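Usage example:
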Amino acid sequence: MSIPEITIYNTLSRKKEIFEPLNTPNVGMYVCGPTVYGDPHLGHARAAIVFDVLFRLLTYLGYKVRYVRNITDVGHLENDADEGEDKIAKKARLEQLEPMEIVQKYTDSYHHSMDLLNIRHPSIEPRASGHIIEQIKMIQDIMDNGFAYEVNGSVYFDVVKYNSSNNYGKLSGRVLDELMENTRDLAGQEEKNNGVDFALWKKAQPEHIMKWPSPWSTGFPGWHLECSTMSSKYLGDYFDIHGGGMDLLFPHHECEIAQSQAANGKDPVKYWIHNNMITIDGQKMSKSLGNFITLDELFAGNHKLLSQAFNPNTIRFFILQAHYRGTLDFSDTALLGAEKGLSKLLNGIEQAKKIVATDSTTSDISKLKAECMKAISDDFNTPVLISHLFEAVRITNSVYAGEETISQGDLKTLNSIFEDFATEILGLIDDQNKQGNNLIDPLMNLIIDIRQESRANKDFATSDKIRDVLSELNITTKDEDGGTTWTYDG
RNA sequence: GGUCGCGUGGCCGAGUGGCUUAGGCACUGGUCUGCAAAACCAGUUACAGCGGUUCGAAUCCGCUCGCGACCUCCA
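Running the assembly step on the lines above writes:
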């Protein structure tokens, strides 16, 4: 079996590494999903799209991937409150709903947006609330191994003790002594032996409504535990890939490593992959800063920074035009540019299905395809891949315009470039133009016919009127040698 | 304060030692068109500043300036 080699930037080593699965051709991949207490925003889209492309790439290459992406529906503690309070519970109180109603609402919202963005469903989408028993078991294991202690019904991870035999900070590059000096004094931490310790189980306050029984108290699991528990349950104690946003690097992922190591005695992950943030005016777009734009607002054009609505496919393309490890600056004009570029690409893909082959080829199509593979294999360099796709579009259009020629074999290769890289791996399907309609198509044919007749009769007043009205309906007509074609742009 | 990262042309955004014309958007000129649209061809604007290493640096090193991320929930 020969699978093309790819490289991945591993946060653990801070280098690009050749990807070698632990158990070829199987690949286990875990990605931190959303905490479902609010509408999904552009940041969620980026993480989901980046790892969707990785999932698609690995599948395309022939790997058998089990992709696990969790739903956090238990909520995390908020330390800015006087007492620790569950994020979801807090939101529930504000909206006078059951916590699980909130969870349902925002899970549905997330799924809906992800579907619009053409993101493939993960193999397993486990929920924290459905794995309380496993989490309790893991806490017990960590306690049995001596790396956790109980105080007043809450259980804390003993970071200092763990660090004496392990390296706490190996992922994020932190040194425990420095962390201890710099850790802020936060309220509600008096139970901990040390400020750097973190909760594995938290006893619920009376007003706390999301809670479960445990050997220590009626309460809820700690911030980082679910990912350790669910990843090991579905992927094993040592698996290939763990992904998530860069903001989760510390403390979340660092703590995951510590928990798994303390419970199972194994470093859990071979390749850690982190996507960078989306910025707005140079600043991170985030829930806490309140400068986020939800996906619904983007799709509806319903935000003060937006001049219009944007197709989900445009959002996807916009995100893939930047490398996943760099920040991506959001703006209306950048999105407008992406919309135009995507349209050019999609038109090219359609055009490539229509062009006619001849005996010879003027461009090296095989080389172009190899360069596409090289780009996506090099730490998923989607912007470079896209630049090659535009070269393929340029060739396509030149052949159509009669400036270049292409052989039958190369034409097949050209179409396979679009099929493999644009559709299969990047997931940039053209869902708008493809859907035929039993009523609209004959109607449009009639209208186009009438316009053609008036043009033939030099009745340009009529033909232009048809074109102008159609244009107002976002239908673009193009008069080409072989007749008039039309496209509908949302 | 600690740790880490970034600064590319009008905008977005790749590249990281020697011609990359990266690519997209915008703009200008040309071809095509009844006029358009689309497309093709051509053109324009660049590597924050200073110093160093090198035959050669946007790319390596140092300093300066500016910006950001993490250190508290966040994709």
